[in-house]
Design brief:
Layout lengths: L1 H25 L14 H6 L12 H10 L2 H21 L4 H21 L6 H37 L1
Helix pairs in contact: 1-3, 1-4, 3-6, 4-5, 4-6, 5-6
Amino acid sequence: MFRFIFQFCTATGVFLFSLLAAWYEGSAILVHPSEWQNSTPITQLIVGNVHVSSDISQWDFFIYAAKFRPTFPMIMTVSGLYLLLLLGNYIFKKVRKWFAYYLFLISGVLFLLSYFSFESLTDGGQKMFHLFTACGLICLLTGLITYLTATIRIKRMKTE
């Protein structure tokens, strides 16, 4: 239990630090009106076209940071994903097939995020695409191995 708590606290600390750093770096969008059209999709869904900096949603700060300064958004993504996997492994420790389904769900979300970042013209957007794709593949393969291992284990138990 100590290992779980230590890993959880460490990953949470890294996640929160990178979240604050990405949020700060993304706030640079407020002084770049030329990027308001291309880097504020959430604000455009909620408000419409952005005319003043006070219209910009805080969530768009992360999109701007991921496009132009991707280091902290990438650390935030990896640490957040690690937290999700750690919690999923703890919750589904007894029923490994459910953990495999959980991994398949996470890999689907990661592939969806990679789809949305596929056509990015910025260097940071391409890095995020590669990160989402790599993490999605790792989750998919881990889920497949977990599923097959659990299935084989169940078959062995039934034959004994």
